């Protein structure tokens, strides 16, 4: 087994070439937590800043897939950050207390109190830092108050806890005074998940599934699947899940690759509270196969929507329409769109 693994790694190394810092294996993990500061303006222009739109992904999280990553996986997750739930402005009851969420005995992830896809403390830190940095750069330039209000500021999220919690962390960093405000006075746009345009959706554009089926049946999709057949066979071997990875159906690739990449990053990323940081031989960050899995996961999750003009239009056209509407709102200065990888 070890000989087979090392032979494959050697073959992959021979064809591997370094590209950009973004292609480093742990770039996705964002281990530095904070990006470099926005560089100062040096053009000497008298132009005045009118609008800023920010597009971001939620912060670091626990795994989202309820699955066996590999046979013999002993990793456990510990989540000191907790979330709370409540309601406000009820005509009959006013404002509820904030209840802290616990998972009880029915948790999926091994360890202490973590739930699938939960925002972890490093993810909170990431967006607090983002808010601070962008606030220092844009708040005064846009003439924004210390406590934001509509229509000047717009926050938008998907209806997923880790995403709107990331918005809250960002807002805390950019507008620290809001922590002393009545939360019922702050607003965030969270559309119904069935109609949300922040991620490609067949509920929003019913023809999206037909366009995807056309792509899955195309020579391009089948060729991509065929070219990665040997790699998938190795993945099945090293994970102890050969049957899962034996499929050659393009429709299975998104779940297969994004699931494995989710497993790998949640085990190796320093920003995810998991121990031990072990993955099977051949799937570690020093292996070229780690990057191959990332590339295929990115393609089948996101980049498939860029393979045809029809897919681009159906997947992203509705969001572009929302952005154009946002740009037409008088008095709006700052918009934050916070979602997922897509």
Automatic annotation (TrEMBL):
Q: Name one GO molecular function term.
A: phosphatase activity
Q: Which UniProt keywords apply?
A: Hydrolase, Signal
Where is the secretion signal located? 1-17
The protein's matches in Pfam families, at most eight in alphabetical order, are given as:
His_Phos_2
Q: Which CDD domains match?
A: HP_HAP_like
Please, which domain of life does this record's source organism belong to? Eukaryota
UniProt family annotation: Belongs to the histidine acid phosphatase family.
The protein depicted here goes by the name Lysophosphatidic acid phosphatase type 6
The lineage is: Eukaryota, Sar, Alveolata, Perkinsozoa, Perkinsea
């Amino acid at each position: 087994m070890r000989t087979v693994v090392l032979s494959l790694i050697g073959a992959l190394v021979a064809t591997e070439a370094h590209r950009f810092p973004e292609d480093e294996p742990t770039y996705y993990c964002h281990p530095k937590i904070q990006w470099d500061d926005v560089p100062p303006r040096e053009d000497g222009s008298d132009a005045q800043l009118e609008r800023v739109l920010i597009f971001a992904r939620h912060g670091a999280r626990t795994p989202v897939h309820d699955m066996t990553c590999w046979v013999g996986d002993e990793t456990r997750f510990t989540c000191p950050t907790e979330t709370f739930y409540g309601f406000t402005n009820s005509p009959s009851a006013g404002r509820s207390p904030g209840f802290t969420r616990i998972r009880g005995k029915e948790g999926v992830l091994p360890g202490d109190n973590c739930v699938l896809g939960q925002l972890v403390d490093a993810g909170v830190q990431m967006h607090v830092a983002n808010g601070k940095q962008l606030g220092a750069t844009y708040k005064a330039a846009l003439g924004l108050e210390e406590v934001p209000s509509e229509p000047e500021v717009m926050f938008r999220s998907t209806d997923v806890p880790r995403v709107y919690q990331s918005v809250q962390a960002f807002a805390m960093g950019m507008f620290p005074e809001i922590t002393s405000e009545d939360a019922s006075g702050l607003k965030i746009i969270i559309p119904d998940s069935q109609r949300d345009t922040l991620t490609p959706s067949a509920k929003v554009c019913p023809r999206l599934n037909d366009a995807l089926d056309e792509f899955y049946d195309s020579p391009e999709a089948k060729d991509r699947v065929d070219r990665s057949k040997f790699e998938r066979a190795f993945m099945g071997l090293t994970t102890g899940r050969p049957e899962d990875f034996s499929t050659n159906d393009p429709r299975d690739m998104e779940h297969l690759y994004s699931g494995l990449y989710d497993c790998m990053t949640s085990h190796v990323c320093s920003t995810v509270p998991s121990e031990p940081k072990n993955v099977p031989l051949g799937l570690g960050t020093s292996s070229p196969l780690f990057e191959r899995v990332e590339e295929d996961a990115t393609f089948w999750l996101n980049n498939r929507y860029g393979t045809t003009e029809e897919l681009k239009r159906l997947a992203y056209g509705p969001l572009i329409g929302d952005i154009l509407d946002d740009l037409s709102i008088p008095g709006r200065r700052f918009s934050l769109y916070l979602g997922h990888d897509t």
